[in-house]
Amino acid sequence: MFYLSGVDGQTCNRVIHTDRSICAFKGSSVDISCIYSSYESITDGFWFSPERYHQGQNSSQPEDLSEDSQYRGRVQILETERGRSTLRISDLRDSDSAQYLFKFKTPSFEWRSDLPGTTLTVTDPDLKVKVKVQVHSYSWSELQCYTSCRLPHGSSYIWYENGLKMAKKTLSSYSVYFGFASSYSCAVRGHEDFPSPPVCVTGQTCNRVIYTERSICALNGSSVDISCTYNGYKVSVKSKFWFSPERSHQGQNPSQPEDLSKDSQYRGRVQILETWRGHSTLRISDLRDSDSAQYLFTFKTTSFEWGSDLPGTTLTVTALQVQVITSTVHQAYTYAELKCRSSCSPAGVSYVWFKNNKKIIKEERPLYKDQFYPGDIISCALQGHENYSSPLIYALKFPVVSVSPSDEIMEGSSVTLTCSSDANPAANYTWYKTDGNQKLHPLAKERQLVFSSILVSDSGEYNCTAENELGKRTSDMISVDVKYSPKPPSVSASPSAEIEEGSSVTLTCSSDANPAADYTWYKENQTLFQGAEGSYHVTSISSEDSGIYYCKSRNQFGEINSTSLFVDVLYAPKPPSVSVSPSAEIEEGSSVTLTCSSDANPAANYTWYKEDEDSPKASGQIFTITDFRAEHSGSYSCGAKNKIGRQNSTFHQIVVTGAWTSRAAGITTAVVLAVILLSIFLLIRKKKSAKRSSEPGEPHSKQDLNQQLFRSQAYTLSYCRSKTELQSPPEELLYASVQFSKNQSDPLSSNIEDSVVYAEVQFNSAAPRSQMSATEDSTALYSTINKTRTQHESAAHHFY
Fold first, then answer.
1. CA distances (Å), 715 to each of 290, 489, 709, 719, 721, in order?
2. What is the pLDDT of residues 304-346, one digit of tens each?
3. Topology of domain 319-394, per CATH?
4. Which CATH class is domain 209-317?
């Protein structure tokens, strides 16, 4: 431990590392700590290793270890209290052996790094057993397991005797009654691969096996020697051989080691060499990856067999690898520096480089710089072992995209896109999807892009890029077309405003579907149209086309109906019809209701008119006259109107029962009376004239007198009829007839005093054609004319 003191008190800019050096085992964890202080507030502080930042791109600037890729996931920065920082490194490796320093910054100050920090040494456990023999008892000894490297706190130990593990022995010291033939070894639990060498309690003669190397790394195709020394206490060795626990466990008898010289896998490749007594060497040639294993030696005497719990020598067979140290990717090529390396880096050997299977004569170093184009193939080998070259590395080839499943992709199914590129070093992949602007959006940085339940929105164009240290390549676009059943259709009518009768109307049905849907139009469950186009066209729509419409969209994956669409066709009023209530005879003073009806959309407004009158009588569908009188009689019509058009009804004549009859009867009565009086006057005058003229001659006959009277009455009737027709309504007919009833045996005398003439006039009033009905009404007028009857003659006159 070392300190830096301030000139004035304890507050100054300084860093004090807790330990100058630390030794730790491979695979373990270590804490490297310091305390620091400053006059100002510290804005930044971090740990770094001078050895690491000298290898970086900017060797003059320290690199924060927490951002160093070599330490990724293995470094933690702990600050349990203000001014104290701890760097914790886990899973220690040989490459972690280095010096570590802490650095901080303030707004105006930066701690420099010229002073040394803490040096970490990562090593295998260098354990040793120290024997302390009791002075008063030569058969009692105390064994102590120790190491020059500081062990983790609370470490547990394992003890071995003659190669066999001793149970329940976990402390660093062990007291035992020993035998002169026994050897002892110890290991730290968790690091059993690195036990101490076996030691004899007294002297150097005891049963033991000591391996020359704990681990050996060799290249594919090369040869390796694995050696050990062994000894049997004052007894000759009866048998000895090398074996591999991994191979023995695969044999017919897993509990019995199998001599490698008899193993078929090693046949012709294994030699057992013993250059002197007590020293054995296992030589394996033409090494293969499968030869990577642990190898142990065992021997037997007549009364002893060496145990196999202690580890032997671990062999790792590896191949050369081409590592990309630096690279600069250009559009057409990549400039890179390559290194031929392996986990076993033998010293003092020459290398051979191959480019496109041709040997590069001038290069024998492990480093190689060049320009590499797509398709270039590079490898390396050790000189003399060209047949065991490294795996090929090459610039990226264009990636290929595959889709699974390869047939139609249904919405909701699982879909996997795979990007493949033949590349070494292995490529890193990125997936992209283009949008409508042809812009690429990164989706994932995986070789496979997986849709567990693909959506319609996932349809589109995809591609991937493959990138490694030797370049970057982009695949062709691949289209993902997600199929799905029709979505709920939308329906619309054009024009979307009011639809008038006779106009052209198009109903449109659209539904999102893949593949595109076929459409069927219905009107109230009646099929109208079916086809790939969703439009149903009506060139001249009529009122009968009003109703509820809907459509169905269908493809091979399903079908669905739309919501209903009501089509409301507007049209002008149809010719109105008029009805009268009551429909029988209409009496004066009664209530009369006229109703106008017309089919129209929208509903019509009604107006009532009377013939020969300019202004409307009323508005509304129903026109009621509560006290109907003679002056209300006449012809009525109605008009129906909406915003589309207008229609008028025909005139309908309405007449009060008896109105025309009474009027006609009064007129006729007056006329008849006048005619009768006139007839009587004429008859009397003529009779007087006849009397005067008959005095000198014979009187006229009775027949002549009657004929004259008939002619006079006929003339009177004709006059009366014409007069009545002029005064009657246009369609009313008046009929009149005169009948005379006389006694032939009674002659007409010259005196008319006792003669009586009866006249009867009947009027028939026909109902008008406008559904007005009227019953016939008869009015009889009677006139009595007295005349002198000589022979009881009488005449009766009847008018109909």
1. 156, 91, 10, 6, 10
2. 888 888 899 999 988 888 888 888 888 788 888 898 888 776 6
3. Immunoglobulin-like (2.60.40)
4. mainly beta
